[in-house]
């Protein structure tokens, strides 16, 4: 034991203090005269801070005639006690006592019991300040911890009172949470406005709670269950978000909304027909009026106003007045894009559809606002009543139709709603009918049944005759068609009236050859035409010597003798085949190549084929042709003595032109070359330039001036000029006579030289 100083002080203030020190066992001794004293132990400050307190703090004593042996100081240790009050059975609890002045000094008590009140006591507690706490995180307490100070007395009346059960919620969005206990009345309902994240609040009573989120967000469950006896974190994660929309119309009509999602797994949602806000309010008013009426009847309270024709003012229902609002909603996923398209039988919407993307971070609110207006309806009637008429509605000036409908069994139709600020055109059509607009009406049509004519053309042996050209015309109708393999040709959709037909095909004559027919409304005529063979054909081929077909070769059949006035021609196809039609029986023909149009053919083998036409077609008339060789050979000879032949090895090529020199200036180029090797390529450049008319006029002006001066001079000196001209004429005649004599006396060498000069070639 530590040694402590003990002070003895007398009640007499004049006497001094006596101080001694305890021994190792804590004993001490004073010598004192009789009198009244008090003894006090001096505890060091460090030990005082450590919680050491002696009791009593001072010991009073009186010294008489004997020793005082009962002076004793004992260390003070207190007890801290209290109780725990629970809403239900307490179960297992933990109470801790922790010193506030001495770090690390902490004591715990484990409590357990199936009662709603339990007590606890901490013994041997040193003096000082302490914090007492109760450990149960899932419960709510009036005071979860208390501070007490131990001085000289025991500490009691510490109480922990449970106020509820802790509910922890982890929320993905801020919501309102509504809860009540199963089986209990509405008085137990509680409502909490909670923020995003982890929230804590207390439930006042034990039991099972039904928790319902109220928000613009939809969670994984419509409601959740929480049991206070099995506490856990309640996690609410929003999976959908409430999107609102409004359609405002100037007329109360049926309105349907189709909502399509960008998520493939989400089917299209069709809402409606919707009721307007005004309709719903009116229905609510009617329901309230009816409820009050039934209540009056139940209570037997009949009022005088009920006998009146008009109900009381307070029982009047509000009149429906526009504009009308149609509200709708949709629960969308986060990041989902929705397309909202309204529809109505009589309304048009602006815009026709809207798109919105839902982020999901907060309440989407009203994302869709669409306005509806009454549309235009186009109605009409077919006279007489005709079902299945195709009615085409187009915007004026548009290239493609807008709407196509068909008339009903009464010949009527109705199209709409359409935009009233646009112009439209209405057309009608039906196979087998002509429809014309009824004057003075919009959309009404007069129907006329069309007629049809079917022609059956066959040969004299009753076999179908294909390839016959049949011409049919009448009014504004014109048609020229060929019969098919069955020999039948049908003309449909003909207006009533007169028509003229004429069949045509080479080598045949037809009965009837032509005819005018009358077609009535809705009538279908059938006309049979017979063709008689009057001529025949010749079939053959034109090919080259190696058997390749020759395409585009003109071939003709030329009549002979009495048939010389007849002739036919044709051209070979890509296979070299030809067919000469219209050859008359009993005639002889020469089948040959035409002189015109066959410039690429040099000759044919044989030159012609002789055929005699009977009562059948002629086959296998084949001709072999030789193509024209695109080459020109020029040959010639040079007449000279053999001794000069080795010197003639130079060639001259001279270019010539037919351009008049009076209008063009040009130089004719020429090239000389030696015939060495197999080939020689030369280039001749020819660049003529056209003479300008201004230059010709200017040159004529320059020449005219001196000529005029000479004429004037000659007229002035004519008496001297005439004798000189006569003398000059006589001299020129003498020179011409001498030249003629010299030409007659020239030798053979000059003649050969002149001949050689004339034989120079130009190519």
Automatic annotation (TrEMBL):
Residue intervals passing through the bilayer: none
Residue ranges constituting the NOMO eighth prealbumin-like domain according to the UniProt record: 321-373
Stored Pfam families: Ig_NOMO (PF23141), NOMO1-like_2nd (PF22904), NOMO1-like_9th (PF22902), NOMO_12th (PF23192), NOMO_5th (PF23194), NOMO_8th (PF23660), SpaA (PF17802)
All copies of domain NOMO second beta-sandwich, residue ranges: 79-157
UniProt domain NOMO-like ninth beta-sandwich: residue ranges: 374-448
NOMO fifth transthyretin-like domain: residues covered: 2-73
Gene Ontology terms for molecular function: carbohydrate binding
NOMO C-terminal transthyretin-like domain boundaries: 650-688
Keywords assigned: Signal
Domain NOMO seventh transthyretin-like: 167-239
Start and end residues of each stretch annotated as Disordered: 739-763
SpaA-like prealbumin fold domain boundaries: 449-530
InterPro entries referenced in this protein's UniProt entry, alphabetically: Carb-bd-like_fold, CarboxyPept-like_regulatory, NOMO1-3_2nd, NOMO1-like_9th, NOMO_12th, NOMO_5th, NOMO_7th, NOMO_8th
UniProt biased composition (Basic residues): 754-763
Keyword presence, Ribonucleoprotein: no
SUPFAM superfamilies in alphabetical order: Carboxypeptidase regulatory domain-like, Starch-binding domain-like
PANTHER family the UniProt entry points to: BOS COMPLEX SUBUNIT NOMO1-RELATED (PTHR23303:SF14), CARBOXYPEPTIDASE REGULATORY REGION-CONTAINING (PTHR23303)
Full protein name: Nodal modulator 2
């Amino acid at each position: 034991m530590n040694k402590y100083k003990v002070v003895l002080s007398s009640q007499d203030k004049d006497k001094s203090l006596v101080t001694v020190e305890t021994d190792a066992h804590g004993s001490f001794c004073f010598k004192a005269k009789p009198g009244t004293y008090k003894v006090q132990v001096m505890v060091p400050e460090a030990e005082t801070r450590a919680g050491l307190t002696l009791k009593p703090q001072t010991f009073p004593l009186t010294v008489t005639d004997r020793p005082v042996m009962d002076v004793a100081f004992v260390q003070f240790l207190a007890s801290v006690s209290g109780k725990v009050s629970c809403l239900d059975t307490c179960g297992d609890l933990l109470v801790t006592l922790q010193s506030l002045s001495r770090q690390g000094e902490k004591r715990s008590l484990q409590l357990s019991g199936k009662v709603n009140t339990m007590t606890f006591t901490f013994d041997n507690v040193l003096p000082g300040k302490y914090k007492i706490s109760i450990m149960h995180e899932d419960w709510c307490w009036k005071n979860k911890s208390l501070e007490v100070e131990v001085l000289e007395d025991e500490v009691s009346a510490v109480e922990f009172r449970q106020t509820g059960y802790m509910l922890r919620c982890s929320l993905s969005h801020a919501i309102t949470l509504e809860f009540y206990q199963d089986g209990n009345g509405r008085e137990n309902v509680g409502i909490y406005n909670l923020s995003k994240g982890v929230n804590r609040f207390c439930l006042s009573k034990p039991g099972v709670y039904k928790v319902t989120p109220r928000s613009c967000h939809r969670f994984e469950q419509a409601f959740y269950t929480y049991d206070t006896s099995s506490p856990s974190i309640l996690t609410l994660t929003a999976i959908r978000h409430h999107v609102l929309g409004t359609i405002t119309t100037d007329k109360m009509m049926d309105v349907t909304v189709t909502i399509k999602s960008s998520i493939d797994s989400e089917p299209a949602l069709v809402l409606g027909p919707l009721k307007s806000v005004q309709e719903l309010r009116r229905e609510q008013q009617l329901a309230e009026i009816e409820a009050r009426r039934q209540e009056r009847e139940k209570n037997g309270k009949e009022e005088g106003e009920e006998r009146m024709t008009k109900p009381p003012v307070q029982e009047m229902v509000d009149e429906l007045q526009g504009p009308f609002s149609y509200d709708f909603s949709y629960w969308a996923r986060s990041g989902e894009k929705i397309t909202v398209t309204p529809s109505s039988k009589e309304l048009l919407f602006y815009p026709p559809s809207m798109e919105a993307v839902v982020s999901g971070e907060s309440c989407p609110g009203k994302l869709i606002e669409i306005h509806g207006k009454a549309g235009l309806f186009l109605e009409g009637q077919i006279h007489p009543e005709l079902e299945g008429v195709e009615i085409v509605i187009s915007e004026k000036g548009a290239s493609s139709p807008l709407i196509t409908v068909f008339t009903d069994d009464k010949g009527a139709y109705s199209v709409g709603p359409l935009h009233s600020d646009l112009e439209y055109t209405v057309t009608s059509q039906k196979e087998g009918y002509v429809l014309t607009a009824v004057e003075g009406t919009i959309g009404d049509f007069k129907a006329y049944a069309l007629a049809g004519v079917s022609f059956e053309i066959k040969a004299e042996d009753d076999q179908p005759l294909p390839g016959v050209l049949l011409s049919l015309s009448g009014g504004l109708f014109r048609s020229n068609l060929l019969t098919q393999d069955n020999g039948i040709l049908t003309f449909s959709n003909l207006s009533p009236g007169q028509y003229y037909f004429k069949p045509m095909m080479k080598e045949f004559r037809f009965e009837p050859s032509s005819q005018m027919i009358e077609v009535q409304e809705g009538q279908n005529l059938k006309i049979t035409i017979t063709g008689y063979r009057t001529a025949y054909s010749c079939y053959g081929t034109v090919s080259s010597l190696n058997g390749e077909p020759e395409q585009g070769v003109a071939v003709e059949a030329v009549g002979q003798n009495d048939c010389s006035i007849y002739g036919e021609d044709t051209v070979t196809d890509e296979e070299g085949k030809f067919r000469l039609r219209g050859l008359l029986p009993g005639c002889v023909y020469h089948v040959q190549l035409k002189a015109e149009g066959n410039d690429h053919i040099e000759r044919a083998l044989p030159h012609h084929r002789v055929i005699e036409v009977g009562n059948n077609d002629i086959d296998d008339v084949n001709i072999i042709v030789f193509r024209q060789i695109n080459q020109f050979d020029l040959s010639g000879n040079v007449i000279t003595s053999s001794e000069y032949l080795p010197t003639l090895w130079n060639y001259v090529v001279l270019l010539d032109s037919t351009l008049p020199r009076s209008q063009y200036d040009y130089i004719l180029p020429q090239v000389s070359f030696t015939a060495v090797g197999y080939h020689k390529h030369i280039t001749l450049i020819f660049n003529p330039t056209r003479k300008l008319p201004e230059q010709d006029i200017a040159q004529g002006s320059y020449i005219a001036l001196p000529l005029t001066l000479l004429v004037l001079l000659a007229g002035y000196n004519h008496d001297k000029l005439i004798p000189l001209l006569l003398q000059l004429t006589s001299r020129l005649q003498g020179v011409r006579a001498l030249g003629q004599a010299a030409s007659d006396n020239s030798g053979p060498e000059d003649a050969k030289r002149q001949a050689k000069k004339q034989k120079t070639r130009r190519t």
